[in-house]
Amino acid sequence: MSDAYFRGWADNEPIALFIVTRQLNIIWRNPMADRLLKESQTLRDRGGMMVASTPRAHQALARFAKIAGFPDETGRIVERNHVVVGDESDKDVVLRATAVAGHEDRLVTLMVRRASDRSHYQLTDLTEAFHMTTAESRVASMMISGATAEEIARALNISVETVRSHIKHIYTKTGVSSREALLSKLIGYMVR
Question: 92-98 contacts: CB < 8 A, separation 24 or more?
C-alpha cells in the first residue's frame, strides 16, 4: 500500500523530483522530471546520469551534488539550493536538495524547477488568517509570484481597476503598504 501511495503522489506532483547518487546517477524520477529533461536545454539525461549543458555548469552541479543535503562543517544536515545556469536567464534551473535519510549509498533527493516558473510557490487559503476573499487570495498569490497588475487582470479575465482594488484590500487586511512587505508577511503561508 505505501509503495502505491508514494507512486501515486510522486506521479501527480507538479514539481520535477529526482533521486540521484552523489555522482549524479539518476536512480528514480517522476513524470514531471521526465518532462523537464525532455524540454530543458540546461539539464539532460545522458546514459542515466544528470548532466548540465556546459562543462562549467556541470562541474558546479557535480560539486553541489557531493555536498547537497549532507552534514556541513558543524555536523548539521542542511537543505541546499543551487542554480544551474543556462544560455539565457529564462533557461536557468533551480535545484533544492536533501539527503535520503538513513541510506548508506548517500542518495540525494532533488526538487527541480525552471527559474522562470512563477507558479512554483502558491499561497495557502488566506481566508482564515487574513479574512481575504477567494479573489483576493488568488491575486495575492499571483502578486508574490511576480505578476504585474496587468498580467493578473489578463489571467483572471478582470479589469486592471478590479485588480488594483483587490490589492488595496489585500494591503489593508495584511497591514502592509508594498509588494515587498506583502511578500515578507506572506512567506510563511507559501507552499510548494
Answer: 92/42, 92/116, 93/36, 93/40, 93/42, 93/43, 95/61, 95/64, 95/68, 97/64, 97/65, 97/68, 97/69, 98/68, 98/69
Question: For cell 527559474, what's the residue?
Answer: 115
User: Please, are residues 122 and 26 in contact by the beta-carbon 8 Å criterion?
Assistant: no
User: In 3D, which of 169, 174, 173 has the Cα closest to residue 185?
Assistant: 174
- Pairwise pLDDT comparison (144 vs 159), residue with the higher score: 159
Determine contact, residues 80/63, Cβ cutoff 8 Å: no
- Give pLDDT tens digits for 161-178: 999 999 999 999 999 999
Radius of gyration of the chain (CA): 19
